[in-house]
Amino acid sequence: MNIPFLDNWLKRHGGELEEKALTAGAENDPERAAAIAELLSECELLRVRAGQAGLELDDSPASLTALDQLPPRWRDDPEELPWLGNDAGLYLGTVIVRTVPGATWHIWPAGHPVVRLVSGREIGVVEAGLDWAVNGAPELSQVYAEAAEA
Asked: What pTM was estimated for this model as a whole?
């Protein structure tokens, strides 16, 4: 898996899983899909940094707008920047999956998470989060709005 916090999650949830065991059949297994969604929604670093700025992330579209308005102090730490961007992308995906009807997580065989919309379109939320963290664009709320329209 190429998801940075996976090792910590696996330790808390009972051992090592192979990539195939984590992703296989998730589309047809609501329990497995829920476990994957829970794993991807943790976004611990982003939640901590947002909390330090006085913002509670409640998995709503409004929280994406609020994140877009935060001063990008994370850009001062080049080591933290990619981790925060990854978390921002996973948080964006979490909001989409929880609020856009029919949106689901899909994990590619190499462990790359994307959000799949009912239309079949896939959104590279991690890439969007990294672009947002580094450049400020596209805004997370903009990516969400495009997904909600699809």
From this structure: 0.82
Q: How many residues does the chain have?
A: 150
In 3D space, the residue among 126, 132, 101 whose CA is nearest the CA of residue 114 turns out to be 126
Residues 6 or more apart from 116 whose CB is under 8 A from it? 103, 104, 105, 106, 122, 123
Q: Which two tokens stand for residue 76?
A: 């001062």
- Closest by CA position to 131, among listed 98, 84, 63: 84
DSSP letter (8 states) at residue 115? E
Q: Predicted confidence band at 118 (pLDDT cuts at 50, 70, 90)?
A: very high
Please list, residue by residue across 86-95, b when 16 or more beta carbons sit within 10 angstroms of its beta carbon and e when fewer do: bbbbbbbbbb
What's the rounded Cα separation, in Å, for the pair 144 and 64? Answer: 8
